């Protein structure tokens, strides 16, 4: 693998080559977000991503369990490792959870899941939050020992920061007690600093949990603002909107290059490792997978703005 990085007065060619390799390593292990509408793009994505790459199957309001199972089955058939979102507040009963997970494992070979709270203000059943799903025992009953949970380093529009941090500690403790391999997958963000500060704080607590930075894949900037406002992304929206030329460039595109580079630079810190990246495909699944492929194979150049420029097709 070679990198087209160039030298600059601020750093030598070896340092820049090492930085480029760290960036590429993040992309080589990246996961991607899909929806049950993306089946027609899976084949093209499989041609550029490694077999067994994690494909998280999101849950959107109104989606049925049958659609989640179908999407996971399609992802498995295409050569991906499907990771379905399971929304706690959408589950009507313990039996409904058990049935859903049983079918996911039997029909799509699902081995890990991502627990999210869900958008309902009033739970449809006994699960008000993701820890309730964990404590039900239905995941372990169906052989699921690898569990992701949603994380919000920048805060949540309806949950106080203190409650978020308490819930994180509760999940970490429960997972350790039950022998569950826990992963925190964050909401997407546009500024690396809050994420890195949150990750360092977790490590000071000796939290044995994998940390994955959720990032918005390359997309139109106006689209990113729309999803950011819908998802309640906080300081990152302000950071995005106040950067010179950002508003004027709403018709242009934006990728996560500067954040990925900042995360790669932090990889040497003992307080950050291990960190992965997960790409939300707001700009289209095939486009996001092509971006991952280009970065994984070092088809980019480091720039002077603390990011990098990805080569075109």
Describe the structure.
With 313 residues, the protein is α/β, with parallel strands linked by helices. It has a single domain (13-218, 254-306), classed as TIM Barrel (Alpha-Beta Barrel). 42% of the residues lie in helices and 18% in strands. The protein is built from 12 helices and 12 strands. Helix 1 runs antiparallel to helix 12 and helix 3 (65-77) packs parallel to helix 4. The protein is globular and about 60 Å long. The two termini are 17 Å apart.
Main β-sheet: number of strands, strand sense, barrel status?
A: 8 strands, parallel, barrel
Radius of gyration: 19 Å
- The CATH architecture name reads Alpha-Beta Barrel
Separate helix tally: 12
Mean pLDDT: 87
Helix content: 40-55%
Summed up, what is this model?
The chain has 313 residues and is of the alpha/beta class.
Overview features:
single chain; 313 residues; alpha/beta; TIM Barrel; eight-stranded parallel β-barrel; two-stranded antiparallel ribbon; 12 helices; 12 strands; 42% helix; disordered N terminus
Q: How do the helices and strands line up, and which of them pair or pack?
A:
Elements: H1 13-28, E1 31-34, H2 42-46, E2 54-57, H3 65-77, E3 81-87, H4 94-108, E4 112-116, H5 130-136, H6 138-141, E5 146-151, H7 161-178, E6 181-186, H8 192-204, E7 210-216, E8 219-220, H9 221-231, H10 235-242, E9 253-254, H11 257-266, E10 275-280, H12 285-296, E11 300-302, E12 308-310
Parallel strand pairs: 1-2, 1-10, 2-3, 3-4, 4-5, 5-6, 6-7, 7-10
Antiparallel strand pairs: 8-9, 11-12
Helix pairs in contact: 1-11, 1-12, 3-4
């Amino acid at each position: 693998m070679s990198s087209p990085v160039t030298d600059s007065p601020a750093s030598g060619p070896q340092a820049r080559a090492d930085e480029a390799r760290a960036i590429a390593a993040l992309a080589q292990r990246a996961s991607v977000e899909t929806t049950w509408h993306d089946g027609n793009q899976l084949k093209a994505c499989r041609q550029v991503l490694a077999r067994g790459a994690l494909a998280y199957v999101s849950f959107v309001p109104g989606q049925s369990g049958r659609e989640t199972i179908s999407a996971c089955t399609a992802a498995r058939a295409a050569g991906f490792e499907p990771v379905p979102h399971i929304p706690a507040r959408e589950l009507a009963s313990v039996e409904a959870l058990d049935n859903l997970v049983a079918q996911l494992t039997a029909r799509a070979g699902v081995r890990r899941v991502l627990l999210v709270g869900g958008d309902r203000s009033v739970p449809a059943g006994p699960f008000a939050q993701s820890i309730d799903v964990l404590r039900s025992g239905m995941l372990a009953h169906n052989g699921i020992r690898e569990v992701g949970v949603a994380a919000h380093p920048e805060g949540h529009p309806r949950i106080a920061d203190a409650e978020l941090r308490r819930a994180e500690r509760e999940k970490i403790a429960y997972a350790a007690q039950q022998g569950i391999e826990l992963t925190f997958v964050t909401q997407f963000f546009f500024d690396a600093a809050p994420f890195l500060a949150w990750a360092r704080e977790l490590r000071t607590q000796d939290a044995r949990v994998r940390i994955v930075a959720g990032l918005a894949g390359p997309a139109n900037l106006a689209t990113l603002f729309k999803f950011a406002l819908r998802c309640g992304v906080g300081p990152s929206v302000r950071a995005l909107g106040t950067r010179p030329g950002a508003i004027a460039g709403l018709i242009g595109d934006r990728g996560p290059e500067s954040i990925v580079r900042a995360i790669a630079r932090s990889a040497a810190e003992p307080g950050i490792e291990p960190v992965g990246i997960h790409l939300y495909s707001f700009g289209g699944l095939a486009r996001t997978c092509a971006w991952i492929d280009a970065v994984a194979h070092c088809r980019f150049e480091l720039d002077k703005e603390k990011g990098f420029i990805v080569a075109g097709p």
